[in-house]
Known about the structure:
Layout: E1 7-12, H1 23-42, E2 47-53, H2 58-67, H3 71-88, E3 95-98, H4 102-117, E4 122-131, E5 136-137, E6 143-146, E7 155-156, E8 173-177, E9 185-194, H5 200-209, H6 216-228, E10 233-234, E11 236-238, E12 253-255, H7 257-272, H8 277-282, E13 286-291, H9 297-311, E14 326-328, E15 331-332, H10 343-349, H11 354-363, E16 371-373, H12 375-405, H13 417-426, H14 429-438, H15 442-463, H16 465-468, H17 473-493, H18 499-509, H19 543-564, H20 576-580, E17 584-594, E18 602-607, E19 612-617, H21 625-628, E20 632-636, E21 642-644, E22 647-649, E23 652-653, E24 655-657, E25 663-665
Parallel strand pairs: 1-2, 1-13, 2-3, 14-16
Antiparallel strand pairs: 4-5, 4-9, 6-7, 6-8, 9-10, 11-12, 14-15, 17-18, 17-20, 18-19, 20-23, 21-22, 24-25
Helix pairs in contact: 2-3, 4-7, 5-6, 6-9, 11-12, 12-15, 12-17, 13-15, 14-15, 15-17, 17-18
Amino acid sequence: MEKKFKRTLVTSALPYANGPVHIGHLAGVYVPADIYVRYLRLKGEDVLFIGGSDEHGVPVTIRAKKEGITPQDVVDRYHKIIKDSFEGFGISFDVYSRTTSNTHKELASDFFRKLYDNDKFVQLESEQYYDEGEQQFLTDRNIRGECPRCHAPEAYGDQCEKCGATLSPDELINPYNADSGNPLVKRKTTHWYLPLDQYQPWLEEWILGDHKEWRSNVYGQCKSWLDAGLRPRAVTRDLNWGIPVPVEGAEGKVLYVWFDAPIGYISNTKELLPDTWEQWWKSEDTRLVHFIGKDNIVFHCIVFPTMLKAHGDYILPDNVPSNEFLNLEDDKISTSRNWAVWLNEYLVDFPGKQDVLRYVLTANAPETKDNNFTWKDFQARNNNELVAVYGNFVNRALVLTKKYFDGKVPAVGTLTDYDNAIIEEFVNVKSEVEKLLDQFKFREAQKEAMNLARIGNRYLAETEPWKLAKTDLERVATILNLSLQLVANLATAFEPFLPFSSKKLRQMLNYPQFCWENLGRTDLLAEGHELGETGLLFEKIEDDAIQAQLDRLDRIKKENEAASYKANPIRPECTFDDFLKLDIRVGTVLECTKVPKADKLLQFKIDDGIGTRTILSGIAKHFKPEELVGKQVCFIANFPPRTMRGIVSEGMILSAEDNEGKLSLLTVEPTAKPGSEIK
């Protein structure tokens, strides 16, 4: 039997306060969480929505050091930017606090101390990288070195951004401090660890046995971790920014951010409800739901539940509907590369269009696999769906009512079989949308809500009330009454998804608030009810606005390429006499063709100023033969002839190759005569 709960506590992952939030955060966590909370509120359920900024950890210290300011300066700045962005997008937190609050510091310290006093930790000594010049232990993100997989020169201690490999600092070749550039040594240090391995049998039963209803991506990742075998995980680290470890002999150590941050859900609830917070966290009739991205699955499904279990006083999560990642224009969103659509910038570039982004991100929600955001799709969904379907139906229904019935809801007359068929199509929308939202299928639920608008458009298109107005006004009244009831249903159905436009639509209908319980009814607007001022619910987005965003991304891509490019190392020294041995000359390409059955070879016929010669070059995958005819190329003239594929090659065409294998042919001005020597 399904357990009945009195209340629902919804948390959303705490974003790092070391930069703004972007559309990946919105799509992965905050929009789906907000949809769910708004839906529960509309149903009249007791629900709390808890959010806040994660203000400790290494990313904050790295940014502070780069900017020459304190970590507190960093988090103060970005906490406000993030909080304002969420408010701007209508993310309806009951509280949005921070992990530098006094309430959080006290609660996190008490949480650690209880586990410490009850011998829930193990104390272990390990060797970690240390910068003797800076006199500090380094975090994984502070360490760089050569990637052991692809040999990129600046891989991080936890990941190589070039090949995507997950790494540990011990795997890096020639590791160094990313900030100081100093080489590193290993030094012993002692920390407290949460012994996850001791909780593995319980976790296997609790997750794999009791929570098979979790999303397949969540369940699968948990199973993968459990199958690999859990190991103790450090809950403290050597750092000067964070919550000090509250035991003697722990000077210079703070709570590890992964341990500190999820306790923020509890402390933020306590800050909001200082007298009643415990019923939300310690009562078995509270349902706890975590909304997160896939990079946080292990923390919210394995680590945090183990912390709660070890403590003993708290409830465990009932569901963890994690999303996968959202890409941007077919490339991974990256804050370090500025490859993102930042929410604070979107609010400036597209004022009043919060719901457009909410709609597009939900339509493309990466619920079980990674998905992609493109500006062209953003424009198309706005213009072809929100404007042409939803907005068009609403506008026609309201404008026709203004025209024929002075803006008052007309009386409904005798319903035809077609009217009843239309009613039958939308009376079940409540149960359909509810079923999908209860299963955290937000993309399908929004699509179901949009079907109401499609039904309405089809109804008006097929009944054509504007043609009946001169001959059968009673029939027109029935058609428009039914259309207006459908518009009212749309305002309610879209309330969780598009709160700004639903509010605007309620104002147009002159109806302050609809009840979710009445969704699907055909008597929401009484006969004679006077409508408000009509207007466009959505506006077209023009090409120039989209092109401006694409141009911005193109500039960022070029800047990243320029900033990240590093040439291959210089080869060993050679002498000037060595160089003089090479006879490098200019030749005019007379003919260029592909060599049959040789994917890489091009055959050149060159005018070398003395006669003609044939040269084979393995550059067929980089150039089209017809584009090279007439070029003034550089070639080595005094290499001994070499036979390849039965063809004698008399030299070597010169080209430049970057460290990613891209070729550029070495050419000279057309005024250089064939046979000119390169000196």
